[in-house]
Amino acid sequence: QKEVEQNSGPLSVPEGAIASLNCTYSDRGSQSFFWYRQYSGKSPELIMSIYSNGDKEDGRFTAQLNKASQYVSLLIRDSQPSDSATYLCAVRLDTGRRALTFGSGTRLQVQP
Amino acid sequence: GAVVSQHPSWVICKSGTSVKIECRSLDFQATTMFWYRQFPKQSLMLMATSNEGSKATYEQGVEKDKFLINHASLTLSTLTVTSAHPEDSSFYICSAISGTSTDTQYFGPGTRLTVL
Questions:
Q1: How many CA atoms, within 13 angstroms, populate the side-chain half-sphere of residue A71?
Q2: How many contacts (CB atoms, under 8 Å) link A and B?
Q3: How far, in Å, CA of A47 to CA of A36, rounded?
Q4: Are residues A72 and A56 in contact, defined by beta-carbon separation less than 8 angstroms?
Q5: Does A44 touch chain B (CB under 8 A)?
Q6: How far apart are CA B11 and CA B2, in angstroms?
């Protein structure tokens, strides 16, 4: 089992719809969770971080964390073609290391 | 804030030569920097963790004698790919953490290395 798992996609949604991206992680002791967006040929850029169970909203983005289910998700409301990218879920596993473990990413395509 | 730069943004070199990539935190002091490698259509793979003033910690399978990391100051870390070969061609990305109380990593723009 991979430590951080994401569906590779592509996830295709029409413009204006809600895109839902999911991520599961294996280490129950994990405390820090991040979503990054990566455009083709570019480096990742931070979208959101979340540390507590529940929802965290920032503009059109909402991160949801459920530690009991070891599940973190990202909702993108009013999806735009410019949101088309690969979304990486990253987790700081409970290993004492500060490094993040990244999922393989979900490719999102927003159709105009 | 939290801007990380990398230089060069791309480099082409001949097989057998060495290439140095610089990673700088521009507006904060980076206690810890990370080096990643990303092959096409794959996710980021952590190569090593670099703490200022100490030796880097390499991930399993990464040759420390081939990928030399120096974190000489709180704003600069360098990765030197020694005796590069075509299979080292990849996208190398650094990231940095500010301080000790956060896990948020800020990424540099990456360096695309092509070894002929």
A1: 11
A2: 46
A3: 5
A4: no
A5: yes
A6: 25
